Amino acid sequence: MTLVGFMQAGNVTVYSGSWRYPSADLSFLTMDYYQRIARTLEQGKFDLVFFDDRLAMPGIYGDSVAEAVRRGARPIKLDLTAVLGGIIGATSRIGVGATYSTTYYEPFHVARTFATLDHLSGGRAAWNVVTSVNDSEGQNFGRDTHFGHDERYDRAQEFLEATTALWDSWDDDALIMDQESGEFADPAKVREINFEGKWFRVRGPLTVPRTPQGRPTILQAGSSGRGREFAAEWADLVFTADPGLSVAQQHYGDQKQRVADFGRDPDDVKILPMAYAVVGETQSIAEEKERLFLDAYVHPAASLALLSEVMNYDFGKHDLDDPVTAEMTEASSGIRGLAEGVKRHLNRDDLTVRDLAAHRATLLQGPRFVGTPERVADQMQEWFESGACDGFVLAATHLPGAFEEFVRMVVPILQERGLFRREYEGPTLRDQLGIKRPGTVR
């Protein structure tokens, strides 16, 4: 089973109330904080520690960042290059991943950043490809509004074509470094790419030689039809957000078939639902901890600020008890998809804004494993062995405790059952994942 630790470089996890948990470490502005968490995950033999990112504070709600700042709803997002550099220096085997946007960056910049990280880590770098989500991000990069869905994916397609061409612009054996003769590298094995498309023109070659992984590992989380096609063509890891086992099984089969349709080996692409685990010494302790996470520490305004951000829709114009209307769902395909998911989860059709906010606040969009270490392992094993996933992206309810408890109490059980490694398989992230190193494409 593949295990990924899901992180934010800021004051909260994906759970917006995590900073309020009494044992939460609030030293998120120090490198020690991130290094400690990464070392914990490496001790637990996780494949990857991965950082989500956004390029703006949540500012859609009430057309202001005020509530996000007041409630700690992800107002802080550190630069991920620096954070990953610090983690690389403190670890030796765990993969290190970061989100970079194809909408607001350039292919040469991203190609060089992740090639550099792959070399400096000895082959452990991963790039989470996103197209970004809302107008606030666009407004930090000179645009009044965000690109439309299809435009974002058209641009992302070109972005990946250019970036992978840059990674392939050096052959594996281009470096000679003969100090006596003075020949450093073979110019016949270093090429301009001369990429030209609608969105990008890139001459190349890249200023970083071909990396230990050949190309850094690619992550992607598209859930729409276009997103699934994009992931099938490019991704090595696909993050999903399926709330139930049957839905996850259907998604798993669909995504693997799409991968095969692109002529790729489905076993080289890992499907990983985002989940979180609440572990307790007894079932009642775990359930009480979950109750605190769900009820005690999330302010509704924080939930609505984050919901507005991801849906690019201002929920500030609604009261919490307003019904979810057709007008809302027509305003955003994301709201429509979210509402359908909440209806299935709650088993009713009459939803309110409060229902959507609670869903966002408590991570109900993915599986939540609650109980004793054995019970959590049982639930994970059921998903893994029933054709629903190849592993999990674990999001912490609080840090560093959630990951420390999981590594200490659940990982040994998964290892005893033969579901998870006891030692790392090799030096690179692709070695841990069991996926092929790509050859150079000219």
UniProtKB/TrEMBL annotation:
SUPFAM superfamilies: Bacterial luciferase-like
CDD domains hit by this protein: Nitrilotriacetate_monoxgenase
The keyword Transferase belongs to this UniProt entry's keyword annotation: no
Domain Luciferase-like intervals: 30-388
Keyword Flavoprotein belongs to the record: yes
Signal sequence region: none
Annotated FMN binding sites: D53, T99, H149, Y153, S223, S224
Coiled coil (UniProt feature): none
Keywords associated with the record: Flavoprotein, FMN, Monooxygenase, Oxidoreductase
Record-level Gene Ontology MF annotations: monooxygenase activity; oxidoreductase activity, acting on paired donors, with incorporation or reduction of molecular oxygen
InterPro entries: Diverse_substr_monoxygenases, Luciferase-like_dom, Luciferase-like_sf, NTA_MOA
Family the entry assigns: Belongs to the NtaA/SnaA/DszA monooxygenase family.
Name of protein: Monooxygenase
Organism annotation: Prauserella flavalba
